[in-house]
Amino acid sequence: MWRAALEAVRPSACLPGHWPPAPAGRLAVIACGKAAAGMAAAAAAHYGNHCEGIVILPAVQEAAGLPGFCFLPASHPVPDARSVAAARAALALAAGLAGDDLLLVLLSGGGSSLMCLPVAGVTLADKQSLSRQLLASGATIQEINCVRKHLSAVKGGRLARASAAPVVTLAISDVPGDDPGTIASGPTVPDDSTLADARNVLDRYRIDARTAIRAALSDPANESPRWEAGIDRHRFRRVAGGMTALRAAADWCRNHGIQPLVLGDRLQGDAGVLARDHAERALHLAKSGRTACLLSGGETSVALGPEGGPEHGPSRGNGGRNSEYALALAIALDGHPAIWALAADTDGIDGTGGHSGARVDPHTLARAQRAGLQAGDCLRRHDSAGFFEEVGGLLVEGATGTNVNDFRAILINP
Prior knowledge:
CATH superfamily of the largest domain: Glycerate kinase, MOFRL-like N-terminal domain
Mean pLDDT: 93
Structural class: alpha/beta
Largest sheet: 7 strands, mixed
CATH class of the largest domain: Alpha Beta
Order of helices and strands: HHEHEEHEHHHHEHHEHEEHEHHEEHHHEE
CATH architecture of the largest domain: 3-Layer(aba) Sandwich
């Protein structure tokens, strides 16, 4: 199911049929995100030598050569100086276009960190500190990106505003609900959130933001632009998202005599809480004697608190939201003999520890007991990756070259 889901959301599978006609002038491409390399390669294969541009991708991925394209590795999930350089390059490319050109923006998850240019008065160090706090707070991706957009010179539609040429955006969505303004923080679409909304996020999660951040979020100059002039020239199209992956997994289930039950691709909230809810559903299904599979996507969160957050170093164990979900699920299932599960991030990287997610089987807790591991203690310390590495079940895929966020499958096979 996992393999089928990944194949369905690779750029080579989901971009054909969505390409705009080539313009009379230049065709400039900005590919940004975890799927940027594959999306740029697909564009080059379709348009040939007519297109040129830049590819902004995570530094952990290999920057393969592509004629006419400049590869710009940057940092994720916390931006660095390379992220700033990438944002400047993107703005410069957009600003150099004329009315008979076309700016083709190929977006995928991770773009918010990979393309980062702080507003005046805010330093990169300020943004890095804030990013670490937000990522550890348990805030949703929509809330995190609301703050990011009001501290950026490229997000929230500002990249499109820099272009005199029409803009076409093709996006692989990694956000629950597929909101264009949340994917990579919406560099090519208008933003209807406000500075007050961003301040409310900091207050809600008790983020101790630096003085420069607070000042910037109170400066009217950083309010999201409400741009209408010329917006009819711009187009945005989502080519794949979490539901694309879930439909492919559901098809796989049906082809193998398994009844798929798709819970949706918008599930958010605490990973442990969601796992316990799904365990209850799975246990209920097991009593029915049916062979079925619960499929879900979205983006859960893990509230580490100040002691365990990235801002304060690795004082707790390694893990991610998917391995944490898997560990909480294993505890709630308590070794049920007819239930297996997998939870992973479709980009191949789940939190810290170098893993993609984890698998659960009926013997997971028994192996932990033999190894002298207390599953509940590992969960409290957020050491889910350490737990599965010790007992078996850690899924290590490496970067997949795409990203539609979490993928979860619970197989009930009485």
